[in-house]
Amino acid sequence: MTFKIYVDGQEGTTGLRIHEVLASRSDVEVLRIDADKRKDSAERARLLNAADVAFLCLPDAASREAVSLLSNPATCVIDASTAHRTVPGWTFGMPELAPGQRDAIRASKRIANPGCHASAFILLLRPLVDAGLVPADAAISATSLTGYSGGGKKMIEQYEAGGDPALQAPRPYALGLTHKHLPEMKAHTGLAQPPVFLPVVGPFYKGLAVSVPLHRSQLKGGATAADLQQALAARYAGERFVRVMPLADPDTLASGFFDVQACNNTNRVDLFVFANDEQVLLMSRLDNLGKGASGAAVQAMNVHLGLDEGAGL
Ligand SMILES: NC(=O)C1=CN([C@@H]2O[C@H](COP(=O)(O)OP(=O)(O)OC[C@H]3O[C@@H](n4cnc5c(N)ncnc54)[C@H](OP(=O)(O)O)[C@@H]3O)[C@@H](O)[C@H]2O)C=CC1
Ligand SMILES: CC(=O)N[C@@H](CCC(=O)OP(=O)(O)O)C(=O)O
């Protein structure tokens, strides 16, 4: 059996990547819209409703419009935008989130793909909050270092045009402390309040690393860094796309630097716990276009359709 797939936003950064990931597969037939009709609502509606799975790789407003164009109850939508990640009736497309999440993704026709920064943050924190090691009311802060492809076509063009010295250095942003991923970071970790979140975009194409500093006094009941690492390892045992590194990963420490790009071209996320006697630094890394976007979207599609979860990834 082949499944019909349509990508609304096929010429964008995440849409193109989904096409690349699906290109070698014989179990899906990818429907394409004519270039001159890419923003024609009637033609988009026809293709959206002809698909078994429709990916929305669009700005938030266009994603909401695409959902309003759906009339076929059999079409499953996987929305890569921020529009529906905490909306009731939508399922968060992160199979590793918690026991039962795969069943929810399998059953749902409305799947919201997690944000790139949020994916790295949630995969790091959720098991620790669930295990009670990080109290739900903890005051958390997080930094995320990301490649510029996370900003989509416009930011890629800006960086690749060259000539602006300001783009040669890392640039902190979202300084109004209202980054669009905060609601999903709170909702899907179980934290009572969102983190103070500082994203930083750098002069490299892709790769993303989130770091979360903690004082041991913030952990519950004298828990240690080893307890955190063990809780992560236990939660993700058997997960093919999550790699929990050894406590204070010796290879990273020996190199002296953290490689933000080491998960590029994979659908993997790596989780780290660094520590001294009093402090802990949690870190996670992923490819913002892989597990942070298009890879995760295809993984959710595979789960929804009951296929091998890693097919094509
Ligand atoms: N880049 C990343 O790392 C990640 C992105 N996302 C999210 O995924 C979504 C897509 O992002 P990304 O691919 O980076 O964005 P891009 O800007 O690269 O691509 C968006 C595409 O949508 C098209 N588009 C805009 N409006 C419409 C419309 N009304 N009808 C049809 N097509 C339309 C654009 O057309 P045109 O080419 O004419 O501009 C463009 O091709 C966004 O919501 C983004 O926030 C999520 C995770 C990671
Ligand atoms: C560098 C850069 O601008 N990155 C984007 C994140 C892209 C992303 O993953 O966000 P969505 O999935 O929510 O679209 C940002 O921080 O807004």
From TrEMBL:
Catalytic activity: N-acetyl-L-glutamate 5-semialdehyde + phosphate + NADP(+) = N-acetyl-L-glutamyl 5-phosphate + NADPH + H(+)
Locations listed in the record: Cytoplasm
Pathway(s) where this gene product acts: Amino-acid biosynthesis; L-arginine biosynthesis; N(2)-acetyl-L-ornithine from L-glutamate: step 3/4
Catalytic residues as annotated in Swiss-Prot or TrEMBL: C116
Coiled coil: none
Superkingdom of the organism of origin: Bacteria
GO molecular function per UniProt: N-acetyl-gamma-glutamyl-phosphate reductase activity; NAD binding
InterPro entries reported in the protein's UniProt record: AGPR, AGPR_dimerisation_dom, AGPR_type-2, NAD(P)-bd_dom_sf, Semialdehyde_DH_NAD-bd
CDD domains per UniProt: AGPR_2_C (cd23935), AGPR_2_N (cd17896)
Single GO cellular component term: cytoplasm
A biological process term (GO) from this entry: L-arginine biosynthetic process
Keyword field: Amino-acid biosynthesis, Arginine biosynthesis, Cytoplasm, NADP, Oxidoreductase
One Pfam short name: Semialdhyde_dhC_1
Protein family per UniProt: Belongs to the NAGSA dehydrogenase family. Type 2 subfamily.
Stated role: Catalyzes the NADPH-dependent reduction of N-acetyl-5-glutamyl phosphate to yield N-acetyl-L-glutamate 5-semialdehyde.
Protein name, per record: N-acetyl-gamma-glutamyl-phosphate reductase
Organism: Ideonella dechloratans
